[in-house]
Design goal:
With 95 residues, this protein is an all-beta fold. The chain contains no helices and eight strands. The termini are far apart.
């Protein structure tokens, strides 16, 4: 099964890193969903929720972000945010 390698990074360090089936984020012109094989993308993010669906079938991880940008290339997704609120799912604590 194809998967994404995801890094979510804030100004104060790494928020989460791992393999995922899907990533969704609040792009400047509307929400965007990323699956494996997505075309290259560079997008500014507006305030909203970044969501990651891990490949292990665990709970979807979700963080509220205040802005930043997202880069997608060759199934590598990098989300760089200005600030991030704590993950809203129990499965994400500790990351």
């Amino acid at each position: 099964m194809a998967q994404l390698e995801v890094d979510v990074v804030a100004a104060d360090g790494k928020v989460w890193s791992g393999s995922a089936r899907q990533v969704s984020a609040p792009a400047a012109d509307g929400d965007v969903g990323i699956l494996a094989g997505h075309t290259p993308l560079l997008s500014v993010l507006r305030p909203g929720a970044v969501r990651v669906v891990p490949v292990d079938g665990g709970a979807t991880l979700s963080w509220h972000v205040d802005g930043g940008f997202m880069s997608v290339d060759s199934d590598q997704v990098t989300v760089v945010v200005d600030s991030v609120a704590k993950a809203t799912t129990a499965a994400a604590t500790g990351h």
